Amino acid sequence: MSAREPEPPLDARLEEAMAFLTSMGQALFPGGVPTLAQATWSERGAGAPSTPEEPRTAEARLRAAEAKFRTLVEQIPAVVFFAVLGEGRNEIYVSPHIEQMLGFTQQEWLEAPFLWYWQLHPDDRDLWNREFARGIRTGGPFKGECRFLARDGRVVWVHGEARLLKDELGRPQILQGVAFDVTESKAAQEILLREATRTAKLEEELAIARRVQTSILPRELKVEGLEIAARMVPADQVGGDYYDVLPFERGAWLAIGDVSGHGLDAGLVMLMVQSAFSAIARARVDATPREVLLALNATLFDNVRARLVQEDHVTLTVLLYTADGRVTFAGAHEDLLLHRRRTGQVERVDTPGVWVGAAETIDRVTVNSTFTLEPGDLLVLYTDGVTEATNVDGEQFELPRLIEVICQACDQPCEVIRDRILEATGRWTDRQEDDLTVVVIRYTGPEERAKEPLFPPSPGTHRRFLAASTFDGRDDAEDLPALTVRTDAQVRLGARGRWRSGVLGIRLFGFGEDLGKGALEALLAAAHEVALQRGAEAVEVDVRELKFLAGACFRALMVWLARVAETPEEKRYRVRFVENPFARWQHPHLSALAAFAPSVVEAVEGPGGTP
Description:
Radius of gyration: 45 Å
Number of strands: 21
CATH superfamily of the largest domain: PPM-type phosphatase domain
CATH class of the largest domain: Alpha Beta
Helix content: 25-40%
Distance between the termini: 112 Å
Strand order of the largest sheet: 16-17-18-19-20-21
Structural class: alpha+beta
């Protein structure tokens, strides 16, 4: 063990303490380090000059030093304290600034040596004791920040520093220290900490919202008859833009929307919209956009208003596209922009309706609207982040500029048109304050299989077909070869059309799930034209021998019924289905078709026209 180094004499340590306190008192002299004349004064008091010849006793010198020390420390804006340790009664000193800090006078503090301990905050006593014990054991320095209770009950944060001075024999002799009121500093730290925590939480929420927002967007945009390019550019403050593409055979569901709020709540609402829309559209293959929107609104209103207790809503337009170019839509969002290749002009298609999630029921103000795309037409969907982007002068981008960009790039691929729109918006605004979403759709026309004409009946084919249900044994029933579809390994669908007394009859058999080259769509389209030309009162569809009625077959029937429903009332005919009562799976699908077009479907009957 190495020998302990001798500590400096007491006078040297006092000089060290004096130098420390002198440096702290320099705040009293704004002109800089004081001169000796400024920092000292005569020990004899004012008006009593000293003479070099006068002897000075040790006691006098001690009193003079003590007076200098007290004057110095009492001017420091902090509490200075020390205690002389040793045998007998210890001498304790605390500067008068203690009263300003904690409300106790200097005399009260000196007369109650343990007052400081009782005013120490109970939650901080253990910390103080551990740090004080460490300082005593090592000789310091002792440092700590603890709370004290002032006389008036205030909590005062105190930063204290102390050191234990020992004599040449290693015995504790003097404990000296200083304490500062750091309450305001602590309050500022708390504010900064809360702000940093809030900022970190907000950034985390925004990161989560961005992940939610981008992860649920569609990755595959392949739809028969369409060329699609889409992109959503999130802003710093996530807004809640949403678009979707749900393809199905010979068609697709499309959606474009924007949540009213920002941040994580907006991302959560958008996730609800995507989930509900996808589930409803996939489960209800017979639904119209209006019906999907009504079901989605009921779900969103309950989740947002009743469960989350939020006021958010969604501007949303839902579109149902079929490969023949027909688009049915419902819901209020931005105007749809339709660039017609034939005219080179852009049509603004209004989206009537109300916000989703803002009211419990919206059935009275939600309607289906339709338009038809021609090959080469462009449909542009967007959110208000595009049209409301502002420049340095506060001027918005607005629709005329968006339409101009579309017209200039209309002959380009959809991806180029999309990028041109986003680039133009980026050049216009100096700062993106909202999400930017653009979906560009070009209708390329139906595929060849949908364009093929119906097969003419070949010799010997008629023996494969069955007579329509209510036409059996009727000599006045006229065959309509133009409506006859042969059955073979490729088509696997049989059909025959007959006419009698104002009624057109169609009998379907085979596998309705595998329609082959668009036979059913062409058959129904031809039947519609014949029924209108001949002024038919009704069209009867016999599906008793049809093996499947779901999927593409069901959608084709739904599109046909929608077309019949839009026919002027004076030309409109009724539709009657004839089902197989033993094929229990048929009835729910036919009932759904009847509910889809109640103004058209007359009845769902058993064989031979028996209900």
